[in-house]
Amino acid sequence: MAQQKISLTRYLVEQQRADGLIPGQLRLLLEVVARACKSISMAVNKGDLGGVLGSAESENVQGEVQKKLDIIANEVLIEANEWGGHLAAMASEEMDSIYVVPNRYPQGEYLLLFDPLDGSSNIDVNVSIGTIFSVLKKPEGHPGVQEADFLQAGAKQVAAGYCIYGPQTTLVLTVGHGVAMFTLDREQGSFVLTKEDIQIPPDTKEFSINMSNQRHWDEPVKRYIDECLAGTEGPRGKDFNMRWIASMVTDVHRILMRGGIFMYPWDKREPNKPGKLRLMYEANPMSWLVEQAGGMATNGRERILDLQPGKLHERVSVMLGSKNEVERVTRYHDPL
Ligand code: AHM
Ligand code: MG
After folding, report:
1. Which domains are assigned to the chain?
2. Which of 42, 83, 178, 331 is the most exposed place for a label (fewest CB within 10 A)?
3. For the segment 264-302, what is each residue's pLDDT rounded down to a tens digit?
4. If you measure from the C-alpha of residue 33 to the centroid of ligand 1, how many angstroms do you get, rounded to a whole number?
């Protein structure tokens, strides 16, 4: 790292100048999202002292009980983003339908999607959680904005990232030119560039999956994990380690930092549901970040970023991380 600290603002301005990749409106959007993440980070840090822990006694559209912090984070992101003129609408894992920017504010050309607080089950036990976000452009050709405008494949994203609230608060971002990481300097109140051009090693000896679901998996996933578990005696000829934080955002962050494979596959308990994780708020932004870092992301059969969403809250099976491992488990899904 150079001696001089590079703030998120400076990084974005320099990217904008260098290749025009970040139009002014998008830069504003990303700065506003980062500011919202700072506020969420402060709420998370306060914990019990801020009265923010525990359940809110409400359910989201997916029938999951919402935590107070899920709702707080959702409100912070909406309030921060609705007035700047850069957005047409937002969609969130915690809201039934899209939130159109109110008429009293100018309408922008971007659409913002987010999982305001990923890893909700970890909130009350002081384990790292985070915000995941994805940015799309509103399709042209019609006035106003509707839910169908959001139903774009992940390959159409113009920015994606996440912010982790852990021992450090870190923001990880791509605008299609590699992956950069920023760490929140709490004294200065600004995000400082701490890693650029993050690369996921193609091979790994670490997998991340909820092993308690093993008996429900499909054969290809069972085979892949069985072979990892067989260690030096098995076909892989090496020992594997396992990590499962149960916050996708943090499990994927570990993979971006040191490699590994993360999987949340389809399972037999709910045969008609394609998976647990959400395509538009979790899988798409994480898949783009992983691909931008030289990794791979599939649903076992197809590239996640090529999937055409049929609805806003669509779910998907997810396998992502070190390229050679994701390639392998995807190959195991091929019909003979
Ligand atoms: P959330 O968005 O409600 O927090 O749910 C998604 C989370 C992911 O972060 C994580 O990978 C998974 O659910 C954990 O699932 P499990 O409870 O099976 O460990
Ligand atoms: Mg989530």
Report:
1. 8-195 (3.30.540.10), 206-333 (3.40.190.80)
2. 331
3. 999 999 999 999 999 999 999 999 999 999 999 999 999
4. 22
